[in-house]
Amino acid sequence: MDSQIDPEYQQHKILIVDDNLYTLRLVQHTLEQFDYKVVTATSGEEALELITKVGLPHLAIVDFHMPPGMSGFEFCRTIHQFCDLPVVMLTAVNDEETVIEGLEKYAEDYIVKPFSPGELGARVQRVLRRIGDFAYTLEPITQVDQRLMVDFPKRQVIINGEAVSLTPTETKLLYILMRSAGRTVTTDFILRRLWPLEPAYEDRLHVHMHRLRRKIEDKSLPPYIVSERGTGYTFQAIQ
After folding, report:
1. How big is the chain by its Cα radius of gyration, in Å?
2. What is the DSSP letter of 14?
3. Between 20 and 30 A from 145 (CA), which of 9, 28, 42, 163?
4. What CATH number is associated with residue 55?
5. Residue 42 contacts residue 24 (beta carbons within 8 Å)
């Protein structure tokens, strides 16, 4: 089975969140056969705590019902306050309303149990290919360079050892740009990822971009975020 995976996506870190231990182990075994690095949690709360300890994954596979704690959608709402983590919902819930809500608001894909291991692996790879790789090593604190580090779960940057708070929108915006560091991210893509369910215009993005740049950049140094006129923005580390 591992021969089917694109080598580019091997060793990506996948988080599985499911309160059913049998399903958890089955999904873990399936993804490890595809040579993904897997971490697991039996609740949304445990998953959020795990992220603060080991860093963000490249993708999360999330169940919908996980009593007595937060649901899969609640987990997605929480984590999307500070990042644009791609999510694949894997659940037995298949009523049309829930599927539509999941795809419109929270997830890149929605798979109904029982699942085919081959299909799961293919869908995960498809999402990773579409969303793109995170350009930096995903650790509890992501280091950009000697000057700048980012703590996504705590919604802050650390500049020369000093913590600076970010708003949820600024944090998510920084994640989107850093995920594609060195490549231009179009304005349209950023708008759709930041505000998927409401009208959003460039002026709104410009305000948040300006505030983010004021917090992380130093006018005496080359900028981290470069505007590509008429196209979008590129994140580049100071060399």
Report:
1. 18
2. E
3. 9
4. 3.40.50.2300
5. yes
Structure tokens at 123: 């869908």
Q: Which two tokens stand for residue 216?
A: 């992380």
In a domain, 137, yes or no: no
Range of the domain at 164: 142-235
What predicted TM-score, i.e. pTM, was given to this entire model? 0.88
Distance CA 137, CA 146 (A): 14
DSSP 85: -
Do 147 and 36 lie in a common domain? Answer: no
16 or 196: which carries more pLDDT confidence?
16
What does the block give as tokens for 130?
């579409």
Give the type of residue at 8.
E
- DSSP annotation of 230: T
CB 45 within 8 A of CB 161: no
218, pLDDT greater than 70: yes
175: domain CATH number is 1.10.10.10
Number of domains in the chain: 2
